[in-house]
Design a protein that fits this description.
The protein has 497 residues and is α+β, with helices and mostly antiparallel strands. The protein has 10 helices and 15 strands. The strands form 3 sheets. Strands 1, 2, 3, 5, 6, 7 and 9 form a 7-stranded mixed beta sheet that branches. Strands 4, 8, 10, 11 and 12 form a 5-stranded antiparallel beta sheet that branches. The N terminus and C terminus are likely disordered.
Length: 497
């Protein structure tokens, strides 16, 4: 049958040559009509006994080779929330069907897409596709051409939306590898074998992505094992094509919108170390404002991320900033509880302490205090008394041997500080020792240090900035130079239906 068709086509070809010679002498319009008439006759003869239910080489018992290439026009968006990506591309497939070889007036026939229903074509699909579609404006964007040797070119414009399993441990300094797997749905490797064409995967010049850099796009031919459901049939071998789009994220957006504001908020919370410890509302309000602002930034940065079970690099940074703001509040609570006095607070001292207040005696109460030393040789130990509703002053002169204020202030050292080291004092603060707090109050009263700077504040002014700077250096070095622990989807792909 095939020999008869070829002979008939050869006869038509020579007949067309003779007719063309006659038509050329007669005029141009007759030649065009004759051309279309012969092409129609060729197509009718080609499809007369054509079986589109079998692949081209089924009679020889060998597989049909499908050569594929992709030209990508645009790529994006890449969604971390849904873990997928989209791209607009021209998807091309070519194969040879000897049953459609011919000899005629043209080298290639450009056919209408309605002819696709009468021809065999591979059932190619995307293994990891989610929502792909063919563009249909203004007509379905498809192309079909047949050469004299029976080579078929089938091209279409697609928008492909495919899965991209992402590992976000290093987000936003991460790199992702988004695969695209192409293969036949029904034909095994005994019937269809896929190969990348010479051009493979190409990109339109000037294509860019908003948040990523496309570093590479390696592609390869693979064979996967797939079992068709719960059947007793052995799993089949399927020929597939895989391309990986290796992406590197730009961290500039997150640096401007998240990292720099968080650092500035943490630095702003340290202003409380220079505020007087008697300004309780100012220091507490500053710390709470910093924590609430960080909470807002943290919630906003997580809106476009999936609810993964691990912490990303951005989460660790935000947690560190939270920790420093909370430490600032806790630092002031320690200053307030152990060193702050005055401002109408109850001191919590026992009756045997130095300050005695006799609530039962309504007629007379006395408060003794020591007047700060001045540059003179004699001062008075003054007592203020109230009796019968009248104020009176009386005092006894005492000799003072230290007449220089600077020396007397430098020599002030409480009994608690002489007996205990700084480490032991810190442990007493942590366990909230009440006796230690009373001793600190007595020392502060003796020094008249109501508005003085706490030693805890002095240490914090240096400790917090230095430790935060070292933490940032360690953070950026680690996440920029340590390789990503997440495996990339490069070589093996296992599909189970």
């Amino acid at each position: 049958m095939k020999i008869l068709i070829c002979a008939h086509l050869t006869f038509l070809y020579f007949l067309w040559v003779d007719d063309m010679a006659v038509a050329t002498q007669g005029g141009g319009e007759g030649s065009n009509d004759l051309l279309f008439k012969n092409i129609t006759q060729i197509l009718d003869l080609l499809l007369k006994d054509y079986d589109n239910s079998q692949h081209p080489n089924y009679q020889e018992g060998r597989p049909t080779t499908i050569r594929t290439n992709i030209l990508i026009k645009s790529m994006g968006p890449i969604s971390e929330l849904d873990m997928d990506y989209s791209m607009d591309c021209y998807f091309r497939q070519s194969w040879r069907d000897p049953r459609l070889s011919f000899r005629g007036p043209v080298d290639k026939l450009s056919l209408n897409i309605k002819m696709l229903e009468r021809l065999w074509r591979p059932d190619t699909y995307f293994h990891n596709g989610k929502n792909s579609y063919v563009h249909t404006i203004t007509v379905p964007n498809k192309l079909l051409r047949i050469s004299q040797e029976g080579d078929i070119l089938y091209s279409m414009r697609l928008t492909i939306k495919a899965k991209c399993p992402m590992c976000l441990r290093n987000f936003p300094m991460d790199t992702q590898s988004c695969p695209l797997i192409i293969g036949s749905y029904a034909y095994t490797s005994q019937h269809i074998v896929y190969h990348w064409d010479k051009s493979g995967v190409a990109f339109v010049a000037g294509m860019t992505l908003s948040q990523f850099d496309l570093t590479s796009s390696p592609y390869q031919n693979l064979t996967l094992i797939r079992k068709e459901g719960k059947t007793n049939l052995p799993p089949g071998l399927y020929s597939v094509l895989q391309v990986n789009f290796n992406l590197e994220r730009h961290a500039g957006y997150f640096l401007i919108q998240v990292y720099v504001p968080c650092v500035l908020i943490v630095v702003l919370s340290w202003v409380s170390f220079w505020i007087n410890r008697e300004a309780t509302s100012d220091r507490v309000g500053l710390g709470i404002t910093a924590v609430l602002t960080l909470s807002t930034i943290s919630l906003d940065s997580r809106t476009d991320l999936p609810k993964v079970h691990y912490a990303t690099a951005l989460d660790w940074f935000l947690l560190a900033c939270f920790g420093y703001c909370m430490a600032t509040l806790l630092e002031f609570s320690g200053v307030h509880y152990f060193t702050k006095i005055g401002s109408g607070e109850t001191l919590g001292l026992d009756e045997e302490d130095e300050w005695d207040v006799d609530e039962d005696d309504d007629e007379e109460w006395t408060i003794s205090h020591k007047v700060p030393e001045v540059n003179c040789s004699v001062v008075y130990n003054v007592q203020e008394s109230v009796q019968d509703g009248h104020f009176g002053w009386r005092g006894n002169p005492i000799e003072v041997y230290e007449t220089t204020p600077s020396k007397s202030m430098e020599s002030k050292e409480t009994q608690t500080e002489r007996k205990m080291s700084c480490f032991r004092q810190f442990l007493r603060c942590v366990v909230a020792d009440l006796e230690f707090r009373r001793e600190r109050m007595r020392a502060s009263i003796a020094e008249s240090s109501t508005n003085s700077v706490s030693k805890i504040d002095r240490i914090s002014r240096v400790l917090f900035p230095v430790s935060f700077t070292m933490l940032n250096i360690f953070y950026w070095v680690m996440y920029y130079h340590i390789s990503d622990e997440c495996p990339r989807n490069r070589a093996n792909f296992d599909s189970r239906l």
